[in-house]
Amino acid sequence: MKSIANEDLIGSKSMPHGNDVCQGPSSHSLNKKVTALVVEDNVVNQMIHKRLLSNLGIETQVVENGKEAVDLHHSGAVFDLILMDMEMPIMNGPEATRVLRAMGVRSKIVGVTAYSGDYEKRVFMDAGLDDYYEKPLTMAKLVSLLQELVDNN
């Protein structure tokens, strides 16, 4: 099992290769870059999350609400990691997560929200999240999350 430290990821342009790389759904190759989708309506949070992921060499796409995330997957897009905000217009995070799981999406979906109450967390987790982080998302939290992603694949 390969360990990922900040110095291994920061400034690199790709994740480790070979058997250590995270694999998404079955069509991904072993040498494929890790991809992420940021589902967030707040422009500042979009920029922060995209910058953190990009600094780690993660190919990142951003959408503004859950419906856009669902539409992307309907069009055939596949991501290894989805960072999902809870409260968004048009389609919120829990609803989008339920729809994505019903579609068979097996990406790691992580809720990232300012809500820290047990009820909100339970509702979001019950929708099909793999994990849950309170904002702000930091480099340390992201490295830990990516370590889990690599270790589990």
UniProtKB/TrEMBL annotation:
<dbReference type="Pfam" id="PF00072">
    <property type="entry name" value="Response_reg"/>
</dbReference>
<feature type="domain" description="Response regulatory">
    <location>
        <begin position="35"/>
        <end position="150"/>
    </location>
</feature>
<dbReference type="InterPro" id="IPR011006">
    <property type="entry name" value="CheY-like_superfamily"/>
</dbReference>
<dbReference type="InterPro" id="IPR052048">
    <property type="entry name" value="ST_Response_Regulator"/>
</dbReference>
<feature type="region of interest" description="Disordered">
    <location>
        <begin position="1"/>
        <end position="27"/>
    </location>
</feature>
<protein>
    <recommendedName>
        <fullName>Response regulatory domain-containing protein</fullName>
    </recommendedName>
</protein>
<dbReference type="InterPro" id="IPR001789">
    <property type="entry name" value="Sig_transdc_resp-reg_receiver"/>
</dbReference>
<keyword id="KW-0597">Phosphoprotein</keyword>
<feature type="modified residue" description="4-aspartylphosphate">
    <location>
        <position position="85"/>
    </location>
</feature>
<dbReference type="GO" id="GO:0000160">
    <property type="term" value="P:phosphorelay signal transduction system"/>
</dbReference>
